[in-house]
Amino acid sequence: MLNRIQHFINGEWVDSTDTEIINVINPANKKVIGKISDGTTEDLNRAVKAAKNAFLSFSKTTKKERITLLNQIADEFEKRKKEIVDTITLELGSPISNSYIPQFSMALAHYRQAAKELEDFEFVEYKNKAIVYKEPIGVSGLITPWNFPANQASTKIASAIASGSTVVLKPAQLTPFTAMIIADVFKAAGAPKGVFNLVNGSGKEIGNGISSHPDIDFVSFTGSGAVGQKITENAAKTVKKVSLELGGKSPLIVLKDCNIEKAVDITLSKSLFNSGQVCTAAAKIIIPEAIHDDFVKVLKKRISKFKIGDPQNQDTLIGPLVSEKQFNQVQKYIDTGIKEGANLIIGGKGHPEGFEGGFYARPTVFTNVNSNMSIAQEEIFGPVIPILSYEDIPEAIKIANDTIYGLAGYVIGNDKELAQETAISIRAGRVTINDAPEDYSAPFGGYKQSGVGREWGKYGIEEYLELKAILTE
Ligand code: NAP
Ligand code: MG
Predict the structure, then answer these.
(1) What are phi and psi of 236, to 5 degrees?
(2) Rounded Cα–Cα distance for residues 123 and 146 (Å)
(3) Do 240 and 274 sit in the same domain of this protein?
(4) Is 443 in contact with 293 (CB distance < 8 Å)?
(5) Edge-to-edge, what's the strand order for the sheet holding 451-452?
(6) Of 52, 72, 97, 117, which sits 20 to 30 A from 260 (CA to CA)?
(7) Active site residues
(8) Most informative mutation of 44, 91, 143 for ligand 1 (most atoms within 8 A of CB)
(9) 35 and 11 belong to one structural domain
(10) What is the pLDDT of residue 30?
């Protein structure tokens, strides 16, 4: 039982000003695994005060000092690999092999990448006779979701620290324990007091408190569109800069000349990873009519390789969804798909057999989906794969871009030039061709309603900077 009912403020674990607690549940068996504090506005105010005070000196640190700090943080983070991997597995229900790669490895990479970016980052530029200074933005409020408990917080924290800004983090109440280990990491790394603060609690109280706080200069949020809009409205009252990483409905276009077996494997891994609870999940699979039936035949065979199981088992590839709310949302969309006339060929409603004790959903595939259907338009955030078909490339691109979102996209095919052209035509912030690996120096973020701003690498650091021009005679 994890009993972590304190907040991390000004370099110390401190008691909450109230005794309200929140139980945290293991989604694989619905058992309580621990508890945290349901923080108060007073707790938040203490954290903001610490961050504001720390900013006075931290904003003056040199690039070299921050490189050293980021590497110390990365070292301490790495030392806690087992604890972090086990915690992600427990609180999110992520299969243990995925909790390591990519959940843990991505988070670690952001600290190392930020340190690397700083090496040649210029904080001063000369334009004619003007000098342009890039200064840290100030106290940054970070609000994170549950689907990548280490990564979502770490990309924000690494960029903020690299810039010389200080932070107050509110992790999702469904998965708070991983973020609390990051606080331990800061303490062990000897970070100056108040540079990193963490307050647990609800979005309603602490989240709203962050977006409307007069002493917070910037809010970086990852999560749902509805909350993103609310944060933007609140932040407008104190004219705060807001960066949003929201949802997606990312298209995956398969080209006719692909190797079908390879294309199916990439498709399944991009859509079923983390039980589909990924903002960049391939959520709309667009197949040439000419190979549609062969593709579906292979997919039916290959999907059984995605073993459903206890997240603690090394060979499990699909664990439970994070919560009852998420399970119900997925059930609702499976229902909608059937009602709208899509063809259910694999899975369906309910739990997979033998997994009734957790929030497990059945990996589900629909064919005969058209672009107007809700399952082709709305973010399901679960292991549901809608398959659409196209006659020619312009039609494939039209379907791909027929969405309010623009976070990611995927193209699979052998003709490099065609794959590249198709990728360029997708209106999204990050398009992956075939099985290209992640690149932490490349920007991450969304077009359209998928968000505002970019994370990762130097693009992430730039979000945490203000520009100052000094003009001389
Ligand atoms: P959410 O409500 O947007 O939660 C994300 C974070 O925002 C959590 O820390 C949450 O706190 C906080 N929050 C909630 N209300 C807030 C408010 N009024 N002001 C400030 N912060 C607030 O997401 P969710 O309910 O967990 O998931 C719902 C849907 O969002 C999913 O089905 C999925 O479609 C989408 N989603 C997207 C991503 C992504 O990576 N883009 C990640 C997760 C979810 P609590 O601790 O109270 O929840
Ligand atoms: Mg929520």
Answers:
(1) -60, -30
(2) 33
(3) no
(4) no
(5) 12-15, 6-9, 196-198, 166-170, 139-143, 218-222, 241-245, 451-452
(6) 97
(7) 245, 279
(8) 143
(9) yes
(10) 98
Conformational region of residue 468, where left means phi above 0, alpha means psi within -120 to 50, and beta covers everything else: beta
Say if residue 82 is exposed, middle or buried (CB neighbours under 10 Å; 0-12, 13-18, 19+): exposed
- The C-alpha atoms of residue 473 and residue 469 are separated, in whole angstroms, by 13
> In CATH, what number is assigned to the domain containing residue 35?
3.40.605.10
Residue 146 near ligand 1, beta carbon < 6 Å:
yes
Closest CA to 35 of 19, 14, 13, 46: 19
Q: Does residue 145's CB lie within 6 angstroms of at least one atom of ligand 1?
A: yes
Q: What percent of the chain has pLDDT over 90?
A: 99
Ligand that comes closest to the CA of residue 249: 1
Identify the burial level of 312 via C-beta atoms within 10 angstroms of its C-beta, where 0-12 means exposed, 13-18 middle and 19 or more buried: middle
Ligand 1 nearest atom to the CA of residue 208, by list position? 19
Q: Rounded to an integer, what distance in angstroms lies between the CA atom of residue 249 and that of residue 334?
A: 16
Q: What is the CATH number of the domain that holds 255?
A: 3.40.309.10
Is the separation of the CB atoms in 37 and 201 below 8 Å? yes
One domain, residues 206 and 277: no
What would the two tokens of residue 8 be?
């991390």
- Region label for 273, one of left (φ > 0), alpha (ψ between -120 and 50) or beta (otherwise): beta
What is the pLDDT, as a whole number, of residue 188? 98
Instruction: Identify which of 442, 407, 411 has the alpha carbon closest to the alpha carbon of residue 428.
Output: 407
With a CB cutoff of 8 Å and minimum separation 6, the contacts of 405 are 246, 247, 248, 249, 250, 379, 428, 446, 447, 448, 449, 450
Taking the centre of ligand 2 as the mean of its atom positions, its distance from the CA of residue 11, in whole angstroms, is: 28
Does any ligand 1 atom lie closer than 6 A to the CB of residue 92? no
pLDDT in tens, 118-161: 999 999 999 999 999 999 999 999 999 999 999 999 999 999 99
Are 184 and 231 in the same domain? Answer: yes
Query: 130 forms bridges with which residues in the sheet?
Result: 127
On whether both 23 and 74 belong to a single domain, the answer is yes
